[in-house]
From TrEMBL:
This is Uncharacterized protein. Residues 1-12, 36-67 have a biased composition (Basic and acidic residues). InterPro entries: DUF7118 (IPR055542). It comes from Halobaculum gomorrense. Keywords: Coiled coil. Residues 154-199 form a coiled coil. The keyword Coiled coil applies.
Length: 409
């Protein structure tokens, strides 16, 4: 019955399993009570905490000098790198003297424009000294790039903050996905444990018999109603029943209902109406006044008409909660009385006695357990395995919830 849910982190494999076992405090050789897909909660929580620490460190590093100051350094580094890349061939060795002069002038100007109070200025000065020679080589350009490393590190703080924020977003998304998956699993396990505690020896026939008797009677009555009465009357009944909350008919298409009310095809019942829809225009002309309009209105709704049945008038098994059955019984009595004989209406009235059974909930729970629990699931509950899975799933849910609700979130 319980569903195994998964997320992108289901493929984390051993890393997730290791993280979970390390945080759970169980013995190293103790089996994990949860399936593979749920083993990575502790690892994801650890990843989230690390991502938040990285984001905080990156933010503090930017705030040390200020975003605008670091942006100035970044622009200056990019300007210097462009000059070094552009002139490395033409301004070295016995290359173009004009290029050599232009390069030295532009590079010196880039350093002068920066200002001595800007962090990393010393790195630019050393880079300028590396290329301030009477003759330059590629190694001089390389030394200039190396000299710029401290300034480049400062400029990279902005990119690191962006990367850290993106990584934190991903970590929070992964943690939320796993938390959602665990919530679903906990719901399933709670339901499993609850059903496993039901009394499977309870006399469920005390509810099943009156419900089955009513269902059989109303199916037969509706089948006759559908077969014998004009289709417009059947759809009028369905339209009225569709307005009640506990009788789940889908309302008829308005255009079809309007057409049948205006031109009821000489009172043809629903089976005949569906048969007419297959006729050719010449054959249909013998049965309806306007074959073209009939075909245009009926054929598009064939599936709806074919599926009309007594199903919305029946009571499900296992049955709903007692209060729901009481409300539905009131609507069913009123609806069924519009087309069914009195003995069927009497069966509907008897549903109230079933809903008022003094042990209704115990019998209903037993019926649900019999319908939903497999033998293997019943054994999991009886052995305590399901309860162990539930406890561990709740622990991991708390781990993730605490990580997501960290003070920085």
């Amino acid at each position: 019955m319980a569903r195994d849910t998964a997320s992108d982190h289901d493929r984390t494999g051993a890393a997730g399993e290791s993280g979970a076992s390390g945080a759970s405090g169980t013995a190293a050789d103790a089996p994990d009570p949860l399936p593979d897909a749920d083993r990575d909660a502790d690892a994801i929580a650890a990843d989230l905490r690390e991502a938040r620490r990285r984001r905080d460190d990156a933010t503090a590093a930017v705030e040390e000098h200020g975003e605008s100051t670091l942006a100035t350094v970044r622009d200056a580094v990019e300007r210097a790198d462009r000059l070094l890349d552009r002139y490395v061939d033409s301004a070295t060795g016995t290359g173009d003297f004009q290029a050599y002069v232009e390069f030295q002038g532009e590079f010196a100007a880039a350093v002068d424009d920066l200002g001595e109070d800007v962090p990393g200025y010393d790195a630019f000065e050393r880079a300028n000294e590396a290329v301030d020679g009477r003759r330059l080589s590629e190694s001089d350009f390389e030394r200039a790039r190396e000299a710029l490393a401290p300034a480049r590190d400062l400029a990279d703080r902005l990119a690191e903050r962006e990367d850290a924020e993106a990584a934190l977003h991903d970590a929070e998304r992964d943690a939320q996905r796993r938390l959602d998956a665990l919530e679903e699993r906990i719901t399933d396990l709670e339901r499993l444990v609850e059903l496993g505690e039901a009394d499977l020896t309870a006399p469920t026939e005390e509810l099943r018999d009156p419900i089955a008797a009513y269902n059989d009677a109303v199916r037969d009555a509706f089948a006759e109603f559908r077969r014998e009465e004009p289709a417009c009357d059947v759809l009028a009944f369905v339209a009225e029943a569709a307005e009640t909350p506990f009788v789940g008919y889908a309302a008829p298409p308005p255009e079809l209902l309007a057409f049948l009310n205006a031109s009821p095809a000489d009172g043809a019942p629903l089976p005949d109406l569906l048969e007419y829809a297959d006729y050719s225009a010449s054959k249909l002309d013998h049965y309806v006044d306007d074959p073209g309009t009939f075909t245009a209105q009926v054929r598009p709704h064939r599936t709806y008409l074919e599926r009309l049945s007594a199903a919305p008038l029946t009571v499900d098994w296992p049955p709903p909660a007692a209060e729901t059955l009481r409300f539905k019984r009131e609507e069913l009595v009123s609806a069924v009385a519009k087309f069914a004989p009195e003995d069927v209406v009497a069966r509907a009235r008897e549903l109230r006695e079933a809903a008022d059974h003094p042990e209704y909930e115990r019998l209903r729970r037993a019926a649900e357990a019999a319908a939903e629990l497999s033998d293997a699931e019943a054994e999991r509950v009886a052995s305590g395995e399901a309860a162990a899975e539930l406890a561990e799933a709740r622990r991991r849910r708390k781990t993730l919830a605490d990580a997501l609700d960290g003070p920085e979130r």
